[in-house]
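User: Some background: our group keeps a shared notebook of sequences we're curious about, and every so often someone picks one and asks for a predicted structure to add to the entry. Today it's my turn. The entry only has the sequence so far, pasted here. Could you supply the structure so I can complete it?
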Amino acid sequence: MDADYSSIQHFISESPWDARAVMNKVAGDSSKALAALGRVGLLIDESSHLKKGDNSVGVSRQYAGCIGKVDNCQVAVYGALSTGSYYQLIDCELYLPKIWTEDRKRCKKAGVPEERMSHQSKSELALEIVKRQLAEGTHFDWVGADGLYGNDSWLFGELDALDQLFVIDIHSDQRVYINEPEIAIPVKTNNRGRTPSRFKTNSQSIEVRQLLLSLPESAWEDVHIRNGTSEEIKAKATVLNVYAWDGKSDHAIERKLIIRKTKTKNGEEIKYSFSNAFDNEFTLEELVRMQAQRYFIEQSFRDAKQEVGMSKYQVRGWLAWHHHMAMVMMATQFILFEKLLHKEELPLLSSFDVREIIMHTYANKKDDIKEALQIMKNRHRQRAPIQDIRIKT
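Assistant: Of course. Here's the predicted structure to add to the notebook entry:
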């Protein structure tokens, strides 16, 4: 690389270019490219970045999904667009734990903007991403997220208010009602105690994992989801109309409960999701595929971390962190566009392949591109029978 280290650090840490404008550009261009391929999901998830010390903005001891335990790390909520097997990170919001937002001096030192010095939950950050992408005109057909966000009935209500379709995972202990529950404030029966003010119901709810056990075999249908790297990914699935109540409102909300059972090497994986889709708006297969599409934001994180250094940065401040993430999105968008450009002759082109070709041509300045391409095609040919794809020579 011709640029010196100090120039690069200045560009990332101090240069006043607008990271948000870059992300918006990535979102707009990716949206147009992906919308031409099919139904697009805006997928929301958080990702963690392990860090030492306590000076990096937002760092604290908190749950780090990348290692599955509490550790010193930064956590951010991300948005990605995805359709079929294509995906692209387009947005992010750095999560600030209360230990940060309650210390304004620490926030100012790290360059945190005034409007972000109040604590926001991950669900609130997720909603910011959805609203920003709607305001920017980014095209997406539904919102997907995992059970962390599905555990927050407030977020469901906000998406309903935006008239935004969602298919969001819920936890297995989520309680639902088979029939619409009767909800009312109890009538005071004597002169003792306070007058009741909270809504109650005598209707019985059931955990979704218990509901699953009561379903007959005839309730399940076989669904093809996609072709995986080693085998066809299929599942047994069902969709039920249920009611969810937050314990506070004067009524319950009807939801579609999507249940998917997939065989894995370790047994059986079961996923539960809520959706606000109308009856007959989508087929069972379409709903299950939207539910399963969340896999690709995880793939976005893997590619970004392994191929373009998403978690490998030596910056501490708010501005620098956002600059780094904007450049990561630019790099992964280049990879996406290479996949789309060559999807006919190289349908299995991966992020690793693109990086490898760049390393053979530009970084190492070697004249062995033909050899690199042949190695890549041989690798694709080994996978082709699984994917049922013909690799052009």
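Suggested note for the entry: The two ends are 33 Å apart (CA to CA). The chain has three domains: 1-145+294-341, 147-282, 345-393.
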